Amino acid sequence: MQAIIASTSTVHGSSYLEYLLPVLKTHFEDVDEVLFIPFARPGGISHQEYTLKASEGLKTCVETVKGVHQFEDMQKAILEAKAIFVGGGNTFLLVKQLHELNLMNPLKTSILNGARYLGTSAGSNICGLTMQTTNDMPIVYPPSFNTLGLLNFNINPHYLDPDTNSTHKGETRETRIKEFLTYNSTIVVGLREGSWIKIDNKDVTLEGDLPAVIFKSQKQPYQLAPSSHLKF
Is 230 within 8 Å of 215 (Cβ atoms)? Predict the structure, then answer.
């Protein structure tokens, strides 16, 4: 299994996927075509427009990017793909689409069988056991919160630290994750923007320049340094 699971597609001051390009050139080194799954974006941009954006972002890495929506048999397209990219957007919408189109299991099978995977934001959320630690609003109702389970923990992309100087009195990201852990025992990795998780066969490591925040039930959160192994 080979996967890049990134907190975000775009960091401040750079273009789409730009900060990941050095990694992606190696990740997709022997790949000519990437299958893009554009189902996370709600309105405002079509599947084809989103696929074109993905193609532009990956143009220095691969020759072709095709949207899965272009195929009559999407399950077959996923199972035969050598590389797959699931873009960001709304995780509720993405998970609803993957379940209702019966694509969740073929996607997992394809990745486990060696398809190179790239996920950003919502596409990273689905790599955990469930999507329950997403930051997104439930704009639609998926049949299940269960996701790919490539990792034995959940991800919180775009993780933001509490701002001690802020006058905002609403819940912080840390508070929301602790609320989740009141009713669930799943470990949560708060993945800051600019960081990503790399799966290389059985090795799972934190990459990028920033530490992640690890949340466990009934324990205080702690920082995990870049290049550390994520083994729970």
Answer: no
Q: Is 209 exposed, middle or buried (0-12, 13-18, 19+ CB in 10 A)?
A: exposed
Give the H or E element holding residue 93: helix 91-100
Q: How far apart are CA 169 and CA 192, in angstroms?
A: 22
Catalytic residues: 121, 136, 158
Q: What domains can be seen in the chain, in order of their start residue?
A: 2-151+193-208 (3.40.50.880)
CA–CA separation, 68 and 74 (whole Å) = 6
What are the tens digits of pLDDT across the range 186-214? 999 999 999 999 999 999 999 999 999 99
Amino acid at 194: G
The pTM assigned to this predicted structure is: 0.96
Sequence-separated (6 or more) residues with CB below 8 Å from residue 113: none
Kindly list the distances between the CA atom of residue 68 and the CA atoms of 8, 84, 107, 130, in Å, as whole numbers in the listed order: 21, 9, 11, 23
